[in-house]
Amino acid sequence: MLNKKLNMPNLVDAPAIQQPNIFPIEWETETKELQDLYEKAKKEQWNASDINWNSLQAKDFDDIQKIAISYWLSVLATFERATPVFAKALIKAYETHAEQPVKFLFSTLVFDEGRHEECCMRCIDKLCPLFPWKWKPRNTFEENVLKAINWIYYNGSRYWRAFSQAADVKYNLSVLFTSFMMAESGATTIFRSMAERAKHPVFRDVFISIHRDEARHLAFTWYLLKKRLPSASIEEKTFITKQLRAGFVFLSPILFEPISEFWKLPEGFLEIHRKMEEIARDAGLGVLTIEEKTKIWGNAIRAVKARIKQFNIPFPDMPEIGIYGEEEVEIKEEDIAFMGL
Ligand SMILES: [Fe+2]
Ligand SMILES: [Fe+2]
Fold this sequence. Notes:
63% of the residues lie in helices and 0% in strands. By secondary structure, the protein is an all-alpha fold.
């Protein structure tokens, strides 16, 4: 009737949209906590430019300290280079029509991770400009440090190829979220502990700010997993167990020590890596000792284990930090579907 009055034609129905697709647009909100977390994410945004970078001065460190700190932050940047990782997850959330707060939260993660990487970049820029990609070593010691970081990046490239394939075809978001949750549990704990130990105010500011973001990321993973895990299939549960181990193994260079199950590193690497950590620690970066890492990360993982077991999901063995008697899982390159810090 109204159509006639307004002199409008009748339309045929639009064709069904082929999936996966980001259309049609829908703004479903199912989980209030996720909505609240998105509001929190907006409020807690911070600008890395506001950190007092001028107080971080190259003259306050000797040459070896500057290299060691830059080395450590370059290793960290491998895991903070999570912007493209979450960009993939963001697309997946849109294509699988996750509830709207999930999509919005991923958009904040994409930006947060860029900011974490920016902090690594800015610290290095102050202490050892152009490290490592255009940095020119002046002696054998420096050449070896550069080679060590290139080994880390080589392994990072293997991870990226495995992750891209897994994200594109193999796994659904809830499976991807499990290793992501492992990473965030580790990240939030380690950065808080580093902020407590760091001697320079810039390092403290960087780690405490990153810690705040990671705590939010961790909350995001838990809300989602709590919703999805009760209905996980047996097959998915097996994947999840594997992913818990994969997250642990992949993160090991930063949260523990590189585990050879994934990390292909040359002889002598570990010695250089340990030395760099030690020098960076003594220079006030707040790097934890291996004993502290084992204790702190061990506690974080035991908390994850308790939560995961509520959903009858077997937990993998992690003998490196004293978790035995669980499921024996061995990780191959293609199993790494983990998302980054
Ligand atoms: Fe994160
Ligand atoms: Fe991060």
